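ingest -> validate -> predict -> emit
validate: passed (alphabet ok, no gaps, 179 aa)
predict: started
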Amino acid sequence: MNTIERIKNWLYNNSLKKLAIIKRTVSNMNLIRAKRIGILFDATDVDERKAVVRYAESLRKKGKKVKLLGYISLANEGAVFDFDFFTKKDIDWAQRVKNDKTKIFLSHSYDLFICIPFENTKSAEYISLQTKAEMRIGAVAEHPACYDLMIDCPKGTTPLQFIKQYEAILELTMEKELA
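emit:
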C-alpha cells in the first residue's frame, strides 16, 4: 500500500472512529414494530434497483414509512429516480459521501436501517454510522460499530436474498415477542 492509500485509509478510519462514539438508543427492532425504515442499496443494476423499489412499496402497503437512498456508480446529469441517490462523484477521496440528498436521508430518524450489501462498502459504512436508527442491519463489515445485526453474505448475494435472510432473522424476534 502506497503512502497516498495509507493517508486515505487513515482519514477514513479516523472519520469512522469519530462517528462510532456518538451515543444512540439501540433496540431489538422487528418488522412489526418498525414504522420508519431507511434502506441504503446499490441502484446501479436496473433489475436489482427495481427489486428493492418493489420491496419498499410492499413495506409501504403495510403502513411503513420507507426512505430509500441508492448508490449509482454513474448517472447522467439531471437523472431522476423515485428515490434519492449518490454517485461516485459524491464520494471524496477518503470514501466519505458528501451530497445534499445523503444529508437529507441522514436527517431522518429510523426504527430500522437496512443496508443491502454492495461493492462500495466504505461509503455504506460511513453512511450507516451516521444514520439515526434504533437498529442497523447490514452485511458483515470491517468496522463492527456500523451495524447492530450483521449478516454474512457471499459475494454475489442479490438484494432479494439479503432481504429474505434479514427478514427470517427478524421473524425469530417477532415470535419471541408474541410468545
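The longest helix spans residues 159-178.
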